[in-house]
Amino acid sequence: MTKGIWVFVEHRENLIKKVVFETLSEARKIADQIEDELCAVLIGKSNDSLVESLSEYGVDKIYLAENDVLKTYTTDGFTNVMSDLIRKYEPRALLIGCTINGRDLAAQVAQRLATGLLTDCTGIEVIDSQLVFTRPIYAGKATVKASCKTNPVIATIRPNTFAAVQNKKDPKIVKTVTDCGNIRQVVIDAVRQVSQRPELTEANVVVTGGRGIKGPENFKLLEELADVLGGAVGASRASVDAGWAPHSMQVGQTGKTVSPTLYIACGVSGAIQHFAGMSSSKCIFAINNDPEANIFKIADYGIVGDLFEVVPLLTEEFKKLKA
Ligand code: FAD
């Protein structure tokens, strides 16, 4: 019998990604409904402080796989370890944050175990004792509910979808023997871009610049607004293709998917491919000088105006509110 809802604990520089706590909080509710246990899977090295943080989020059990070679994420290392753990303990489900590494790991493990994978999920519920996941389809224009007949079901969870709710427990620690298998990738160095801003996919506020921003130098305006709101800066594909922003900032179908509380689109027309990456934002606010721009059809609030006038005014007003 399969047992346990597992959540993969993605971490970097001794900090657990926010999406992990969000996923654990939602998974806790599901585990309670079906009277199953909630388990965290922590793969890495020297994880004591991480174990402590996990115990704040209602975890019953932590599978701990420690090894020097697991210090940084590699596709082979993490896939080998996770697949072995699943074969050994046979969980009902594995939930993974829909991040760059999370998407990679989920696809690899699903392929390795020949099991079903549901990506970018925004809801989990129990129907007839089965886990059913909600996923946006057609660039966010519709949603579908899906389940998998294979065990375990693997699902990636969109960041910022669920609230992280603290719920202290004393989890059982299961130290596992880790044969990391053959690892073909070698991480030689990780170069960190120095930024005080939150990661785009995890940010509560995203300020995005489209072609209307007219040049790379003008992103400074958006950065100032983002900074006063504690947000991240994104870009449309038109801005990225023009070389004004790196691809890592692109929001949309071929970029990142964001789900912030507030999405501020500046000089973005609102193409379907852009919408695909930001449609689940809780509040969309658009600034565009064309009253007919498509973005106003999907925005909750909008200002028809020149972004070069509106954005600095907004920044000033938010600064006053903070003072
Ligand atoms: P535009 O469509 O040129 O819009 C610029 C807007 O700025 C206009 O609405 C204009 O009125 C406004 N503006 C101009 N000046 C000002 C001003 N001073 N003040 C205020 N407003 C002003 N796009 C993405 O964004 N992300 C993706 O991931 C993506 N993937 C794609 C994948 C495929 C397969 C394809 C075919 C396309 C994809 N695209 C993607 C491209 C998409 O179709 C659009 O071309 C793109 O989103 C347009 O970017 P934009 O809104 O910045 O530019």
UniProtKB/TrEMBL annotation:
<feature type="domain" description="Electron transfer flavoprotein alpha/beta-subunit N-terminal">
    <location>
        <begin position="5"/>
        <end position="190"/>
    </location>
</feature>
<dbReference type="InterPro" id="IPR001308">
    <property type="entry name" value="ETF_a/FixB"/>
</dbReference>
<dbReference type="InterPro" id="IPR029035">
    <property type="entry name" value="DHS-like_NAD/FAD-binding_dom"/>
</dbReference>
<dbReference type="Pfam" id="PF00766">
    <property type="entry name" value="ETF_alpha"/>
</dbReference>
<comment type="similarity">
    <text>Belongs to the ETF alpha-subunit/FixB family.</text>
</comment>
<keyword id="KW-0274">FAD</keyword>
<keyword id="KW-0249">Electron transport</keyword>
<feature type="binding site">
    <location>
        <begin position="267"/>
        <end position="274"/>
    </location>
    <ligand>
        <name>FAD</name>
    </ligand>
</feature>
<dbReference type="GO" id="GO:0009055">
    <property type="term" value="F:electron transfer activity"/>
</dbReference>
<dbReference type="GO" id="GO:0016491">
    <property type="term" value="F:oxidoreductase activity"/>
</dbReference>
<keyword id="KW-0560">Oxidoreductase</keyword>
<dbReference type="InterPro" id="IPR014731">
    <property type="entry name" value="ETF_asu_C"/>
</dbReference>
<feature type="binding site">
    <location>
        <begin position="236"/>
        <end position="237"/>
    </location>
    <ligand>
        <name>FAD</name>
    </ligand>
</feature>
<dbReference type="GO" id="GO:0050660">
    <property type="term" value="F:flavin adenine dinucleotide binding"/>
</dbReference>
<dbReference type="GO" id="GO:0033539">
    <property type="term" value="P:fatty acid beta-oxidation using acyl-CoA dehydrogenase"/>
</dbReference>
<keyword id="KW-0285">Flavoprotein</keyword>
<keyword id="KW-0813">Transport</keyword>
<feature type="binding site">
    <location>
        <position position="211"/>
    </location>
    <ligand>
        <name>FAD</name>
    </ligand>
</feature>
<dbReference type="InterPro" id="IPR014730">
    <property type="entry name" value="ETF_a/b_N"/>
</dbReference>
<dbReference type="InterPro" id="IPR014729">
    <property type="entry name" value="Rossmann-like_a/b/a_fold"/>
</dbReference>
<feature type="binding site">
    <location>
        <position position="288"/>
    </location>
    <ligand>
        <name>FAD</name>
    </ligand>
</feature>
<dbReference type="InterPro" id="IPR033947">
    <property type="entry name" value="ETF_alpha_N"/>
</dbReference>
<feature type="binding site">
    <location>
        <begin position="250"/>
        <end position="254"/>
    </location>
    <ligand>
        <name>FAD</name>
    </ligand>
</feature>
<protein>
    <submittedName>
        <fullName>Caffeyl-CoA reductase-Etf complex subunit CarE</fullName>
        <ecNumber>1.3.1.108</ecNumber>
    </submittedName>
</protein>
<dbReference type="Pfam" id="PF01012">
    <property type="entry name" value="ETF"/>
</dbReference>
<dbReference type="InterPro" id="IPR018206">
    <property type="entry name" value="ETF_asu_C_CS"/>
</dbReference>
